[in-house]
Specification:
Layout (H helix, E strand, L loop, with lengths): L5 H9 L10 H13 L4 E5 L6 E7 L7 E6 L18 E3 L2 E3 L7 H9 L11 E6 L9 H11 L5 E4 L8 E4 L1 E10 L14 H21 L13 E9 L9 E10 L5 H21 L6 E10 L2 E2 L5 H10 L5 E3 L5 H6 L4 E3 L14 E3 H19 L4
Parallel strand pairs: 3-6, 3-7, 7-15, 8-14
Antiparallel strand pairs: 1-2, 2-6, 4-5, 5-16, 8-13, 9-11, 9-12, 10-11
Length: 386
């Protein structure tokens, strides 16, 4: 099979649009066929509707002691963004490769795949784990992680290759995302005693979140490793109503709770729901019984935190020669691997500062750093276990 250079492989993956709202099967089929060309079998773990799939595969012997290289295949939309070039036709300019997903995080996946020809003499395996729908709440990974737990000999480490500029990352926040539908009752706004204004009740919920966040920011229970150092509660989308002089019948909003390690986002959500059920809904029902507040949790991603002596962290320090480590404020799939008992660390090429932006890019310097790192992983797996 014709080898693809690392730059070629990034171009191939980025050139297959996999925005989360669409299928990723074209990319998954490409990867599966690519691995098959080298004699390695890919295993697919599909979504319920079959329109998307995770992929995991083992390169090398089916033995314990492997290293999992984990990444997600989906990317965020380009809608409304002003790009200087085609986001799905990568271009190299001024020492940077531009394109949607070059940084977050097809770059890491592509570099790992491009090195498959160099993985021919492994004494311990390297496993690929490529997920779907990470960008919409790490939805796809859990079923893949369970499949790896059930079918793959015990790996010694999982490396989640999110863009960290090759810094070793030992923690990230969790995130709970939810939607709410406040069902009100219409009346003339001059007679609010006869109506139930959905927007006004939604505003109380949003204000509850704002006040809770302010209390957390002012409290003593802070995790100074993060910026901000506290759990945040944020409403990012809200819409509803018909006219300024009608009490609104409906109001919809979306929000997220990003929790520091050791704090449960679900606890805050449960407290918000109790406020809705015990305080707001009785007020609404006193005017119109058919009103109410509905909640729909769409994702609940656990936070991630490991000690400095975690096996995966110690391994990366040895491979990279770096003793420093840090945390990131965004959520990723590390916590999901950790919940299943894997030793996990985050480290990958590119900077999160370029992710999700128009003209997203990865620097060629970071590409080279990622290749050097992955080649050191391969070299370690070619050595006999000590």
């Amino acid at each position: 099979m014709a080898e693809l250079t690392p730059h070629d492989m990034i171009g191939r993956l980025v050139g297959i649009p996999t925005v989360s709202r669409d299928s990723n099967l074209d990319l998954i089929d490409f990867v599966a066929n690519y691995l098959d060309g080298y004699g390695f079998e890919a295993h697919l773990v599909r979504s319920d509707d079959g329109g998307k799939a995770n992929l995991y595969a083992t390169i090398g012997p089916e033995e314990p002691g492997g290293i999992v290289l984990s990444g997600h295949t989906d990317v965020v939309p380009i809608d409304g963004q002003d790009w200087s070039s085609d986001p799905f036709a990568p271009e190299v300019r001024d020492g940077r490769m531009f394109g949607r997903g070059t940084c977050d995080m097809k770059g890491f996946c592509a570099l790992a795949l491009s090195l498959v020809p160099e993985m021919q003499r492994l004494r311990r395996p390297i496993h690929f784990a490529f997920s779907y729908d990470e960008e919409v709440g790490c939805v796809g990974a859990p079923r893949m992680i369970r499949a790896i737990r059930a079918n793959v000999p015990e790996p010694r480490a999982v490396i989640v290759g999110e863009p960290t500029s090759m810094q070793i990352v030992t923690g990230h926040k969790g995130i709970l995302h939810f939607r709410s539908h406040v069902r009100g009752y219409e009346a003339h706004s001059s007679q609010q005693q006869r109506g139930v204004p959905a927007i006004m009740y939604a505003a109380r919920l949003v204000n509850w979140m704002a006040e809770k966040q302010a209390a957390l920011a002012a409290g003593g229970d802070l995790d100074e490793r993060f910026e901000p150092a506290f759990t945040t509660l944020h409403c990012g989308v809200i819409h509803g109503g018909t006219a300024h002089n009608i009490t609104s019948k409906d109001c919809h909003f979306e929000a997220d709770i990003r929790s520091v390690p050791g704090v449960s986002a679900r606890d805050f959500f449960d407290e918000l729901e109790r406020y809705a059920r015990e305080v707001l809904e009785p007020m609404m029902h006193a005017i119109q019984p058919n009103t109410g507040i509905d909640f729909d949790v769409t994702s609940d991603v656990p936070s991630f935190a490991v000690d400095e002596d975690e096996p995966a962290v110690a391994m990366l320090r040895q491979l990279t020669g770096r003793n420093d480590s840090g945390v990131v404020p965004f959520a990723a799939e590390c916590g999901q691997f950790q919940e299943e008992g894997f030793s996990v660390v985050m480290c990958g090429p590119g900077s999160i500062d370029q992710a999700h932006q128009p003209d997203e890019f990865i620097s060629l310097e970071q590409v080279d750093a990622g290749l050097t790192f992955l080649r050191s992983v391969i070299g370690q797996q070619q050595e006999l276990p000590r």
